[in-house]
Amino acid sequence: MFKWLFKRKNYPDSYKTYLAGFKKDEKKLLSETRFVVFDTETTGFDKIEDRILSIGAISVLNNTINVSDSFEIYLKQDVFKSESVKIHGILKGGNLEKVSEKEAIEKFLDYIKNDVLVGHHVGFDMAMVDRMMRRNNLGKLKNLCLDTGVLFKMSKHLVYQENLKNYSLDDLCEELKIEKVDRHTATGDALITAIAFQKILARLNKNKNLKLKDLL
Amino acid sequence: MKNSIAERIYDFIKRFPPFDLLKDEKLEQISKEVKIIYLEKGKIVFNVNEAYHDHFYMVRNGAIGLHRIKGDKNEMIDICDSGDIFGLRALLAQENYTLKASANEESIIYGIPINVFQQASENNKKINKYLITTFASNAFTPYTQEQSDEIFNDYIPNNNQDIQNLKTANYTKKPIICQEDATVKEAAILMSKHGISCIVIVNQKKHPIGIITNSDLKHKIATGKFSIENSVKNIMSHPVVACNKKITVAEAQLQMIKFNIGHLCVTKDGTYNTPLVGVLTRHDIVLSIGNNPSVLLKEIKRANRTKSLRNVRAKAHNLLKAYLDQNIPIRHICKIISELNDAITFRVIENAIKKMETPPPVEFSWLALGSQGRKEQLLYSDQDSALIFQDVPEDKYDETQAYFLKLAGHITKSLHKIGYEYCTAEMMASNPEWCMSYSNWKAQFENWIVNPDNKAILLSSIFFDFSRIYGNKTLVNNLTDSIFNSLEQSSHLLSLLAKDILQSPPPLGFFKQMVLEKNGKYEDFFNIKVRALMPLIDAARLLILTHKIKNINNTALRYEKLSELEPENKELYDSCSYAFKALLKFKTKQGIANNDSGKFINLETLNKEEKLKLKRCFKPIREIQDLLKYRFKIINLS
């Protein structure tokens, strides 16, 4: 405790407000929990070298996505890799409005608050965001976090659970019959992931007594 | 800030009325405020008498059923598909909802805020007109239905003849036509190619000038009066009787009787001086009135679209309700409903093959498993299916399997649309594990029989009850033969199955209380499927396998066969057969009442007589389990 206090840096107000959100310990029902489903597009897969180009996120509350409560941001980055452009389609110049990392992360924290984060193979996106926060002298993300890849495996019938296949987002679309629209844009993938997430929850919740802790 | 999701919503909603009438910037405003709502099957959007929401709804994926509830009767009035709007009338009238809307399948809908919509559509005359006409045409139905209910009470199942008569008739929209210079032979070839009973002869402006029907061919050609090289003008009946698109069923019938004809030409303005838009046949009339199995079967055979099959299945469901109300023997009901189920699957497969770019590369057969395989599927239930294809050289295997997987994908998707849920265990032919060549299937069964593991036991209950729905017979017969050969060599699996059946205790505990579920949503409910039906089904299958009887899948029939084979146990088997039928009926009735699978029964809702009836059915379960214990020499289990 003491050590923690000692180590505490002088964080900017935005991060302090974000941290303060976690102090309240409230127990919510699944239907009252706000899930923020997000995805990032990056210049590549190297957590240190590569940079986030855009973040897309939407919130799911009681099986409803409010389009007005969605998040989409593009970042100014010095790192640029032309070979990744064919995947995400974000040009170095382009006419998209772009912001600095600092501004992006402030807005993102303000958007996610203390809610539960959801993503497909979310470990990578979390790591990328954490790296970005560290570059900007902030601490780590504190949110609970769910991976649709893992949840999907849980939802499979017992007969198939020994199968250790790693399901890609495309596999999920295929198996859960989800239309692939705007694949490989951060917001598009976030929406697809959100729909997959809800379909998986419905499958896991056949007995109607699913709780958040069953998912962690 | 850019909002890509709003842009996609914009792209979607602008394709449908009334949004196609709005200006782009107004649509953009609306798109940004939409809610995307995910609904599991059966989830209710709004209920009767519920206060109106802030949103009206548009279906994005899936389908929403609109139901009218009267007393404990729940009648589906309409199904909204992708692009359809619902729940708007109550908002505009500022009244409570008069209908119930619930997800007919897993669906995604858009919630569109009424205030944003109203602001955007203010002073838009076209939209106002659109809304008024939509409601004017919709308002008619609920009113007349309410009236008819008071006249006919529930003794007459679904007999809304009067409304049916006032409905506009459904005519065939793309009629087969030929030009006036065609020969009789050409016309007849067209008719036989399309399998139709009449062809309309049109002039260059597409006005109908005459009609040739089967009976013209019979009387004028087959008798030798005219040769087949004659012009169609020589034998056609003319002038045609034309009618308007909006003709009601009753009017159409009158016209047909008056002119003693079976076909009406539907034209643009209702006279024969305007282009032909359709043909209305006596058959179309029968279809719009009829709700009996043979009419439904015919309708299935003609259905080219999944949507029409879905309607037929919904009608079959009404038929089932009526039969149960009338106390028709359950065996008879099973027969009819499974006929209809099988015919629907058959038609779905036929349509799916048409969707493929090439015909199937080799022979195949489609198997129904589980309850459909046993011909016991009354309510909508999960899909369980498998596909066998003929052996192919090794280098062609992957390609062939890929073809059938794609085909099966189309089929399971259509079946899902019709109302059969995907199997949670993915025991469906669209799964590579259940779509294999004959030799692989044979090897798979041999393996299950010779080296049974837990998975084999879990799956055998489904896989030993298969029946062929479509395709090659020999493949299936050979597979059955090989299964019985393997069973002859090893009885290990059978004794494991017996053990497995005895694991589930008889449904009565100490003090003759029914064993209730202990966790989940259904705590303190009685699971009639697992506790009562499955033990009977499993025991029948096991016993019939030990007797090596092929091709009897139905549980009741299996017990009847058993009592023939073992006269010394006749009494027990007969009581099992009786108990099975009674329990199945019980489950089906529960399912209809609660609009679910009927598996879970709340004992508190049963009266004393029903409880006693239920308990009486349990006695044979205990007795048949004792018989298995003795026969398979299983001890220390209970």
TrEMBL record, chain A:
<comment type="subunit">
    <text>DNA polymerase III contains a core (composed of alpha, epsilon and theta chains) that associates with a tau subunit. This core dimerizes to form the POLIII' complex. PolIII' associates with the gamma complex (composed of gamma, delta, delta', psi and chi chains) and with the beta chain to form the complete DNA polymerase III complex.</text>
</comment>
<dbReference type="GO" id="GO:0008408">
    <property type="term" value="F:3'-5' exonuclease activity"/>
</dbReference>
<dbReference type="InterPro" id="IPR006054">
    <property type="entry name" value="DnaQ"/>
</dbReference>
<dbReference type="GO" id="GO:0005829">
    <property type="term" value="C:cytosol"/>
</dbReference>
<dbReference type="GO" id="GO:0003887">
    <property type="term" value="F:DNA-directed DNA polymerase activity"/>
</dbReference>
<dbReference type="InterPro" id="IPR036397">
    <property type="entry name" value="RNaseH_sf"/>
</dbReference>
<dbReference type="Pfam" id="PF00929">
    <property type="entry name" value="RNase_T"/>
</dbReference>
<dbReference type="InterPro" id="IPR012337">
    <property type="entry name" value="RNaseH-like_sf"/>
</dbReference>
<dbReference type="GO" id="GO:0003677">
    <property type="term" value="F:DNA binding"/>
</dbReference>
<feature type="domain" description="Exonuclease">
    <location>
        <begin position="34"/>
        <end position="206"/>
    </location>
</feature>
<keyword id="KW-0378">Hydrolase</keyword>
<dbReference type="GO" id="GO:0045004">
    <property type="term" value="P:DNA replication proofreading"/>
</dbReference>
<keyword id="KW-0269">Exonuclease</keyword>
<dbReference type="InterPro" id="IPR013520">
    <property type="entry name" value="Ribonucl_H"/>
</dbReference>
<keyword id="KW-0540">Nuclease</keyword>
<protein>
    <submittedName>
        <fullName>3'-5' exonuclease</fullName>
    </submittedName>
</protein>
<comment type="function">
    <text>DNA polymerase III is a complex, multichain enzyme responsible for most of the replicative synthesis in bacteria. The epsilon subunit contain the editing function and is a proofreading 3'-5' exonuclease.</text>
</comment>
UniProtKB/TrEMBL annotation, chain B:
<dbReference type="Pfam" id="PF00571">
    <property type="entry name" value="CBS"/>
</dbReference>
<dbReference type="InterPro" id="IPR046342">
    <property type="entry name" value="CBS_dom_sf"/>
</dbReference>
<dbReference type="InterPro" id="IPR051257">
    <property type="entry name" value="Diverse_CBS-Domain"/>
</dbReference>
<dbReference type="InterPro" id="IPR005105">
    <property type="entry name" value="GlnD_Uridyltrans_N"/>
</dbReference>
<feature type="domain" description="CBS">
    <location>
        <begin position="171"/>
        <end position="228"/>
    </location>
</feature>
<dbReference type="InterPro" id="IPR018490">
    <property type="entry name" value="cNMP-bd_dom_sf"/>
</dbReference>
<dbReference type="InterPro" id="IPR014710">
    <property type="entry name" value="RmlC-like_jellyroll"/>
</dbReference>
<dbReference type="InterPro" id="IPR000595">
    <property type="entry name" value="cNMP-bd_dom"/>
</dbReference>
<feature type="domain" description="CBS">
    <location>
        <begin position="236"/>
        <end position="295"/>
    </location>
</feature>
<dbReference type="InterPro" id="IPR000644">
    <property type="entry name" value="CBS_dom"/>
</dbReference>
<dbReference type="InterPro" id="IPR043519">
    <property type="entry name" value="NT_sf"/>
</dbReference>
<keyword id="KW-0129">CBS domain</keyword>
<protein>
    <submittedName>
        <fullName>CBS domain-containing protein</fullName>
    </submittedName>
</protein>
<dbReference type="Pfam" id="PF03445">
    <property type="entry name" value="DUF294"/>
</dbReference>
<dbReference type="Pfam" id="PF00027">
    <property type="entry name" value="cNMP_binding"/>
</dbReference>
<feature type="domain" description="Cyclic nucleotide-binding">
    <location>
        <begin position="54"/>
        <end position="138"/>
    </location>
</feature>
<dbReference type="GO" id="GO:0008773">
    <property type="term" value="F:[protein-PII] uridylyltransferase activity"/>
</dbReference>
<dbReference type="Pfam" id="PF10335">
    <property type="entry name" value="DUF294_C"/>
</dbReference>
<dbReference type="InterPro" id="IPR018821">
    <property type="entry name" value="DUF294_put_nucleoTrafse_sb-bd"/>
</dbReference>
